[in-house]
Amino acid sequence: MEYISLLRPKRTDFLVTMTPDERATMGQHMTYARKLFGEGKIILGGAATDGAVGILIFRVDSAEEARHLFDNDPAVLAGIGYPELHPFTIGLHSDELQRMKS
């Protein structure tokens, strides 16, 4: 099962106006995301370069697991932005394109 996590900052200029506490929280968020990536729980993560949104795609066994991982993200816990979690289906993926060409 895949779930997409979106985090929209509360300020449009968040990337350039982060407070020291917000910067520390985002560092904790990255450490958390890298740990989950290493465990295979996150299959993709990134952020819009204009700071509009951060995205994580979880691959988990249940909705409860997705909710637990999402709710324990340091950025979500700190209220850095407006968080969303949705069930997600990967419809197109570059690996599929490679298989089609073979």
Describe this structure in words.
- This protein has a single domain, classed as Dimeric alpha+beta barrel (Alpha-Beta Plaits), CATH 3.30.70.1060.
- Helices cover 44% and strands 27% of the residues.
- It is an alpha+beta fold.
CATH topology: Alpha-Beta Plaits
CATH architecture: 2-Layer Sandwich
Number of helices: 5
Number of strands: 4
State the name of the first-level CATH class. Alpha Beta
- Strand fraction band? 25-35%
User: What's the main sheet like?
Assistant: 4 strands, antiparallel
Which H/E pattern describes the elements?
A: EHHEEHHEH
Which strand order do you get reading across the main beta sheet? 2-3-1-4
Q: Separation of termini?
A: 27 Å
What's the helical proportion of residues?
40-55%
Cα-atom radius of gyration = 15 Å
Principal-axes geometry comes out as globular
Number of self-contained structural domains: 1
Q: What is the oligomer described by this structure?
A: single chain
- Tell me, rounded to a whole number, the average pLDDT: 93
Uncertain stretches: none
